[in-house]
Amino acid sequence: MSASQKVIWHPLHGKEIAFPEALPVSGQRDTIAKAFLASPVIIVCGETGSGKTTQLPKICLALGRGRIHHGGLIGHTQPRRIAATSTAKRIAQELGSPIGQDVGYQVRFADHTSPSASIKLMTDGILLAETQRDPLLRMYDTIIIDEAHERSLNIDFLLGYLRQLIDKRKDLKIIITSATIDAERFANHFAMNGKSAPVIEVSGRLYPVEQRYLSLEQENKKEALEITEGVCKVIGDVWREGASGAGDVLVFLPGEREIRDCAEALRKDPVLQRFHPELLSLFARQAVSEQERVFQKGNGRRIILATNVAETSLTVPNIRYVVDTGLARVKRYSYRNKVEQLQIEPISQAAANQRAGCRSLWTSIRWYLYSSLQ
């Protein structure tokens, strides 16, 4: 396709597909469309909140991909179940269709797709399993690998597999997207005929951000603060500063146990008892109905206690304050014990930046429960 060729946008059920102009991805949809049509693989880099997760499948659909245009499925992978289900529901809502009709999702033990669906959200493990039954993935005409920066085993296997697949399937289109990806390395990985894959950078919705640090290791004290004590201190400071009506608080914690301990401590905090904030939690094993409460608007001010599942894909609404403990539970294989273990480890700088971008409102404040030197 030549650079001067006009992009043709296709309607859905006779109606033009709308793109929210407030999202940076929407402003660059023509650039993305031209690169998508001209190359079998494109790399899209966008900060959290840029709209890449929800708008890229819609762009592919508007460009004539998907079953409704007599093609294959637009496959869109997510690293976690909650991201796949929430994103599918959000895209279906924006397209004005019930879940399963034009947009479906498949996670372990649940398949909400129909023969008419054009966009399919799924975990990366689901797509990897489908390569066993259909090595050429003929069901799909477009595949989007989201959150590639997480570099899990599933994602790494898929990236290697898809690189070999594009040589066998000339009709297949692939989009690799992430907030903190090493774009040049991925572009070189998907190079064809000596030419690297095109990279499109999309800036996020930039708001002024103030950074504050509270190290749990206190000077002149033998014992460090517990995580729950640090979180209570930070949230108490937020309320004491007179910001009791401005934005919700998102707290990143290592696991479920820490979430329960923190919730109990916050309920007993004398400062917060006067304001009665709504306490919500978000973690992988949680019931879907409980997870969905986080993405709905609350009646008052909310404190959301989450694991690293809140890092990816959909932005939790109305977040102004982000409190980051700098820790996460990571699955590691113990060669000595021959078992997999969930260990609490410090997160990477890329993950810290990803967490910091999870705010969704105007001027925001990030609290780090570690020193700036760490």
Task: Lay out the secondary structure.
Elements: H1 24-27, H2 29-38, E1 41-46, H3 52-62, E2 73-78, H4 81-95, E3 103-107, E4 110-112, E5 119-123, H5 124-133, E6 140-145, H6 153-168, E7 173-178, H7 183-189, E8 199-202, E9 209-213, H8 227-240, E10 248-252, H9 256-268, H10 270-273, E11 278-282, H11 288-294, E12 302-306, E13 319-324, E14 327-334, E15 339-346, H12 349-356, E16 364-368
Parallel strand pairs: 1-7, 1-8, 2-5, 2-6, 3-5, 6-7, 9-16, 10-12, 10-13, 11-12, 13-16
Antiparallel strand pairs: 3-4, 14-15
Helix pairs in contact: 3-4, 5-6, 8-9
In brief:
By secondary structure, the chain is an alpha/beta fold.
Keywords for this entry:
single chain; six-stranded parallel β-sheet; 16 strands; 24% strand; globular
Could you describe the largest sheet, including whether it forms a barrel? 8 strands, mixed
Net shape: globular
Low-confidence spans: pLDDT under 50, at least 5 residues?
none
Helical coverage, percent range: 25-40%
Q: Calculate the terminal CA-CA distance, rounded to whole Å.
A: 48 Å
Radius of gyration: 22 Å
SSE string, helix = H, strand = E? Answer: HHEHEHEEEHEHEHEEHEHHEHEEEEHE
Spatially, the strands of the biggest sheet line up as 4-3-5-2-6-7-1-8
Question: Treating each run of at least 4 consecutive H or I residues as one helix, how many helices?
Answer: 12
How many strands appear in the DSSP assignment? 16
Strand content: 15-25%
**Oligomer type:** single chain
Mean pLDDT: 88
Structural class: alpha/beta
